Every structure is written in structure tokens, then in C-alpha cells.
Amino acid sequence: QVQVAESGGGLVQPGGSLRLTCAASGATMNHYAIGWFRQAPGKEREGVSCISDSGSTKYVDSVKGRFTISRDKDKNTMYLQMNNLKPEDTAVYYCGLLLFFADCSVGDFGHWGQGTQVTVSS
After folding, report:
1. Greatest CA span in the chain, whole angstroms?
2. Using CB atoms within 10 A of its CB, is residue 90 exposed (0-12), middle (13-18) or buried (19+)?
3. Residue 61: what are its φ and ψ, rounded to 5°?
4. DSSP assignment letter at 14
5. Backbone CA torsion sign across 93, 88, 10, 58
6. What was the pLDDT predicted at 96?
7. What are the pLDDT digits (tens) for 25-71?
8. Torsion of CA 89, 79, 47, 120, to 10 degrees
9. Is residue 18 within 8 Å of 85, Cβ to Cβ?
10. Would you say 61 and 47 are in contact if contact means Cβ atoms under 8 Å apart?
11. Are strands 10-12 and 116-120 parallel, antiparallel or unpaired?
12. How far apart are CA 107 and CA 69, in angstroms?
């Protein structure tokens, strides 16, 4: 069974950048669609970005042009490059495997990690 673990979160100033990493272990995630969702304090979980096994991508409108999702099948790893971060991006970010590749909704995720905190503040 695939286990995933997120890393790379932290505190960054508005306009700054972070790269999140999702490392898989136990089995390959190469045949799965995978992605990121986030949960901000007091808010519902929100799908952020997803990538299919063939490399097709989806983004929530609020991060388009700022975030880039990618995967390295040789390393069994996924990344989320986040640029021009805004305070409203503050949340715990989770990576996970999707049950299917559709519109990257939270309900599409079937398995996820413990999350990594991203805080955007001056």
C-alpha cells in the first residue's frame, strides 16, 4: 500500500515561494492520479492541484499562474511549486492519491498524508 508524506512547508512572507514535496513509499504511485488539497483554519478543505498519471494537470482558479504541480516517476515523488504566495494561501497542505482524475475536488481523494503547514505572513 502506498504511503505518502508531505514536506517543505514553513513560514514565508507575502510574495515569497515554497516548494512542497510529496514522497511516496511502500509502493509506486506512478499509476495513480495524485494531487494536493489544503485546509485553512475555520474553512472547508479545498482541492488545490492535481496531476494525472499521464501528466495532465488541474488547478483551482485562485492558484492558477502561481502554483505548478509536477511529478517525478523515477523518484516516486510529487511537487507543488508555489510562487507569489498570498496570506490567503495559509493552510495545512495535504498530498494524496485520487480515486479518479476529474475536477480535483476534495471528494476525489482516497488516501492522503499528515499534511504540512504553510503560513504566509509578514
Report:
1. 40
2. middle
3. -55, -35
4. T
5. positive
6. 94
7. 999 999 999 999 999 999 999 999 999 999 999 999 999 999 999 99
8. -10
9. yes
10. no
11. parallel
12. 19
